[in-house]
């Protein structure tokens, strides 16, 4: 038959502290995992937003090119003074 020996109080406290430490570590690992998961979702959303806004940027550039081309066809080469609403021709007119 096995002999049963009683643990000393400091040994019980040491084991209890080790178990509490493992429990706390597991909780923190879970929190880190959840935080990382949330950050991954935020990053994914930011990537989607960036992709959408970059498409809009490209579309705006294309619209600008088309508009400038239409102004050049109508008025020729020159510059615009948006504040005055005027077109200043680069080529002298006869």
What is this structure, in a nutshell?
This protein has 94 residues and is mainly α. The chain is 71% helix and 9% strand.
Q: Report the radius of gyration as a whole number of Å.
A: 36 Å
Number of helices: 1
Q: What value does the average pLDDT take? A: 94
Q: Characterize the main sheet.
A: 2 strands, antiparallel
The level of helicity is over 70%
What's the overall geometry?
Answer: rod-shaped
What's the domain count?
Answer: 1
Q: Helices and strands: which structural class?
A: mainly alpha
| SSE run | HEE
Explain what this protein looks like in three dimensions.
- The protein is mainly α and 94 residues long.
- Helix content is 71%, strand content 9%.
- It has one helix spanning 9-75; strands at residues 78-81, 86-89.
- The chain has a two-stranded antiparallel ribbon with strand order 1-2.
- The longest helix is centred in the middle third of the chain and has 67 residues, at 9-75.
- The chain is rod-shaped, with a radius of gyration of 36 Å.
- The chain starts with 8 loop residues before the first helix and ends in a 5-residue tail after the last strand.
- The model has no long low-confidence stretch (mean pLDDT 94).
Summarize the topology.
Layout: H1 9-75, E1 78-81, E2 86-89
């Amino acid at each position: 038959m096995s002999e049963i020996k009683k643990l000393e109080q400091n040994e019980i406290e040491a084991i209890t502290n080790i178990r509490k430490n493992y429990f706390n570590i597991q909780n923190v690992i879970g929190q880190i995992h959840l935080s990382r998961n949330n950050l991954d979702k935020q990053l994914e959303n930011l990537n989607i937003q960036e992709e959408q806004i970059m498409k809009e940027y490209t579309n705006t550039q294309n619209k600008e090119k088309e508009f400038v081309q239409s102004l050049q066809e109508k008025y020729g080469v020159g510059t615009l003074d948006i504040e005055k609403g005027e077109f200043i021709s680069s080529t002298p007119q006869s």
